[in-house]
Amino acid sequence: MSASLYPLASLSQIESTPSREDGIPDDLEEDLRAYGCKLVHEAGILLNQKQVAVAAAQIIFQRFWYVTSMKQFGVGDIGMGALYLASKLEECPLRIRDLINVYDLLLQRATHSLNGNANKAFKYTPMSYFGNTFYDLKDALVVAEMQILKRLGFNVQVVLPYGTLVNYMRLLGLTSREDACSRAWGYLNDAWVYLVYICFTFSPDNSLQTPVYALYQVPTIVSAAILLTIRHLNIPLPSAPPNCWWELFDASWEDIWSVCGYVMRLYRQRSTEDTNRVVGMVTKKEVRKWLEEHRTPNPIPP
Predict the structure, then answer these.
(1) CA 209 to chain centre
(2) How many angstroms from the chain centroid is the CA of residue 142?
(3) pLDDT digits (tens, 9 = 90+) for 166-187
(4) What is the per-residue pLDDT across 118-168, written as a single tens digit (0 to 9) for each?
């Protein structure tokens, strides 16, 4: 991770993540990251957790996969550990039992949908607190939190973009447009829920489902949210050199455009097969099974 106000992935980590080195395709890794963030977001809602803690958890979750492979840890366990850790960092701690119960509910519901029961009502079966399931999840949670701290070098500082967005919108004279403010905020937080659920039943927190918070500084991410907003609402801002509005914030056009691409890719249409594949790969055991089934055999020497 680079030295900055908060850690960002290095160029070598971006070009080849540990998961890709283990044979996981780019698109599958991206979808697993987004699905892991979906679980974190849904768990935060069910636990009535503060939004800052949920956002911080998703950023820490994204950073983790630039130093560790999904072959070694499951996205479900690391998401649970990230939410537990972020809740401590934001001084709104959760009870381990509550967090485990919620994740058990989410995973049971995902399994229900995988078994072809999407049109049938889901009924949650609570676990026994004296059975193996509870203690296995508890152990996984503790290990996940420990591994996040260890592999990120205890550098888990998070800077959220909301205050920066307000300042930039005020400077650009956009605060009088309520639709612009709500839409720009939505790209950073939880607007446009219906579009995301149509595409992949993902959580409404668009940019937090992408790795952009582990790749770019906050001014660049906020500038990308503003760019998407003014493009969709046809709001004119000076965009021709030498009077480009994003240069006020020391953001480059190439980086802004890249962030926009990350966010908009969440809206791409996915097949039912792709959706089921991601939902069925929450644990490292399932990821390893997929890698074994799709392993390319070594060519036989002549």
Answers:
(1) 3
(2) 21
(3) 999 999 999 999 889 888 887 8
(4) 677 888 888 887 888 889 999 999 999 999 999 999 999 888 888 899 999
Report in angstroms the alpha-carbon separations of 57 from 50, 94, 182, 263, 302.
11, 13, 23, 18, 51
Q: Output the six-digit token pair for 57.
A: 């958890």
Please name the amino acid found at residue 115. N
Tokens for 70, please give them: 């999904």
Long-range Cβ contacts of 101-105 (<8 Å, 24+ apart)? 101/126, 101/127, 102/43, 102/46, 102/47, 103/39, 103/43, 103/76, 103/137, 104/133, 104/137, 105/46
Beta carbons within 8 Å of 154's beta carbon, 6+ residues apart: none
Q: Confidence class of residue 299 from pLDDT cuts 50, 70 and 90?
A: very low
**Amino acid (one-letter) located at 197:** Y
Q: Centre a 10 Å sphere on the Cβ of residue 284 and count the other Cβ atoms it contains.
A: 18
Quote the CA–CA distance of 290 and 191 in Å, as a whole number. Answer: 34
Q: In this structure, what token pair is assigned to residue 260?
A: 């926009």
Burial class, 80, CB count within 10 angstroms (exposed 0-12 / middle 13-18 / buried 19+):
buried
Q: Enter the pTM of the model.
A: 0.84
Q: How many residues does the chain have?
A: 302
